[in-house]
Specification:
Elements lengths: L1 H12 L14 H7 L3 H19 L11 E2 L4 E3 L6 H11 L2 H8 L8 E5 L17 H13 L7 E5 L6 H11 L3 E5 L1 H8 L5 H4 L3 E7 L4 E9 L2 H6 L4 H15 L1
Parallel strand pairs: 1-6, 2-6, 3-4, 3-5, 5-7
Antiparallel strand pairs: 6-7
Length: 252
């Protein structure tokens, strides 16, 4: 079966049709395009069979699409009452390229906040390269595009040892996104505050509460497999796409 997959993949690489979202054929728009000829349809069927075989062999379990888990834990933050206070917090706690990245976002525009596990080590990185290497960055951009979100409608960050977690919580409250998507086990633990294997809770939409002295804010959060993991385990992309569609129902 794997040899058949490789042969079919080579055929696909020779086709003119390229997915605007993902480098592998798990995008439904690509499925429709490939179905235009019987030869392409046969290639597609074999790829789908391989994907199903890979997934059925995996211990991963899909979460319920409408599952909402209420949490008792509350996260404390400092209320930022204006764009000026937001800029002051960013300038005080961040420097250089990371400061430049955060300060450009406007409160009313943010639909999604992505929280990843760590920053990249290269101090010269800008934009998404602050968080991902080049290969992972390309996949992440395709994922975001597939969700119908523009670059001004999402923010990404990672918790770090040099910055107080309450600072990030304050940023989250200021951005007030429609959903927080955690990318990886470390980020999920930081946001949800509990020790659980990602394979057991991915795709489950949870309620979290951000609490200040004068205001309580309820946000939704969903764990998603990191694009770093999807690069090394491409058979999990189908599951990730199903999880992404759950988030899309919220932002749309």
């Amino acid at each position: 079966m794997k040899n058949l997959f490789k042969d079919n993949l080579q055929q696909l690489r020779g086709q003119k049709t390229i997915s605007p979202f993902f480098s592998t054929c798990w995008n439904y728009k690509v499925f429709k395009q490939l179905a235009q000829t019987s030869e392409k349809t046969e290639v597609l069927k074999s790829l789908e069979a391989f994907a199903q075989e890979s997934i059925s062999d995996s211990p991963l379990e899909l979460g319920e699409a409408e599952l909402i888990i209420k949490k008792d834990q509350e996260i404390n933050y400092n209320l930022l009452k204006s764009e000026q206070e937001y800029s002051e917090l960013v300038n005080l706690n961040f420097s250089g390229l990371l400061q430049d990245y955060f300060v450009r976002f406007k409160q009313s525009e943010i639909k999604i906040v992505f929280v990843t596990d760590e920053y990249e080590n290269d101090s010269d990185n800008t934009g998404l390269a602050l968080f991902f290497n080049e290969q992972v960055e390309i996949l992440f951009e395709r994922m975001v595009t597939a969700m119908g979100v523009t670059s001004s409608e999402y923010v990404i960050f990672a918790f770090d040892d040099q910055t107080d977690e309450k600072t990030y919580h304050s940023l989250l409250a200021y951005w007030n996104p429609q959903i927080i998507i955690t990318l990886g086990a470390t980020a999920t633990k930081k946001i949800l505050g509990k020790e659980e294997r990602l394979k057991n809770i991915h795709g489950q939409i949870e309620d979290i509460s951000l609490v200040s002295d004068s205001k309580k804010l309820s946000l939704k959060a969903m764990p998603l497999f990191s694009p770093k993991l999807l690069i090394s385990a491409p058979n999990m992309k189908k599951i990730a796409w199903e999880d992404m569609q759950k988030a899309m129902k919220i932002i749309n």
